[in-house]
Design goal:
98% helix; 2 helices; 210 residues; mainly alpha
Length: 210
């Protein structure tokens, strides 16, 4: 019986010792909790102050933003008015320039037409001169041919006068054939010369009209 009491006392003593340790740990934990609570309250107060300051800053920024938007709107309106006025002035300034440009183009076109007309007149005069020279050359060629035929006939007549009666028939026949051959030869030469000169004249006309 006594041994059991001793065991119970010993057990109670151990439990009291453990309880004391638990109480000490509890007190330590409570101290730590109190410190943590203070830190939390301090941080919350700091955060609240920062939130209040941040809220004030946000409100200030909103006001400044609204004011800035209003100023930007006014600047855009003024810019549009200035651009509109400037565009109107530019149109007024451009109109005389366009008229001046059109006048200059008209003057250049008129001058070009005058130069072309002068060139046409020059080519026309040159063509007239060429045609006149061609006619004169043809007349001169005809006169030369007529003179050659006249000289040939005269020569044939002289030969006929010098011939004896026996040779009159043969000479007349010869003279007739000679005169005919001469006329044919002269006509062919005239045609060839005329074709050659006409080709030369046409070539010169093409060179002038280029």
């Amino acid at each position: 019986m006594s041994s059991e009491l001793e065991s119970l006392k010993q057990r109670i003593t151990e439990l009291e010792t453990n309880n004391a340790k638990l109480e000490a740990e509890k007190a330590e934990i409570e101290i730590k909790n109190a410190e943590l609570l203070k830190q939390v309250i301090k941080k919350d107060a700091k955060h609240d102050a920062e939130n209040v300051k941040l809220g004030a800053t946000i409100e200030k920024l909103k006001y400044e933003n609204a004011e800035l938007k209003d100023r930007i709107t006014k600047v855009k309106q003024n810019q549009l008015q200035n651009d509109s006025a400037k565009g109107t002035q530019d149109k007024r300034n451009i109109t005389p320039n366009n008229n001046s440009s059109n006048f200059n183009l008209g003057a250049v076109h008129h001058e070009k037409l005058l130069k072309e007309k002068e060139m046409d007149n020059f080519l026309l005069e040159a063509h007239k001169i060429i045609v006149s020279n061609e006619i004169n050359h043809r007349k001169k060629d005809v006169e030369n041919i007529v003179q050659m035929i006249a000289d040939g006939i005269k020569k044939d007549t002289q030969l006929s006068n010098k011939a004896t009666p026996c040779d009159v028939i043969s000479i007349e026949s010869l003279n007739q054939n000679s005169s005919t051959d001469l006329l044919l030869s002269l006509a062919q030469l005239f045609d060839k010369a005329d074709d050659a000169k006409y080709g030369t004249i046409r070539t010169n006309q093409k060179e002038i009209l280029r």
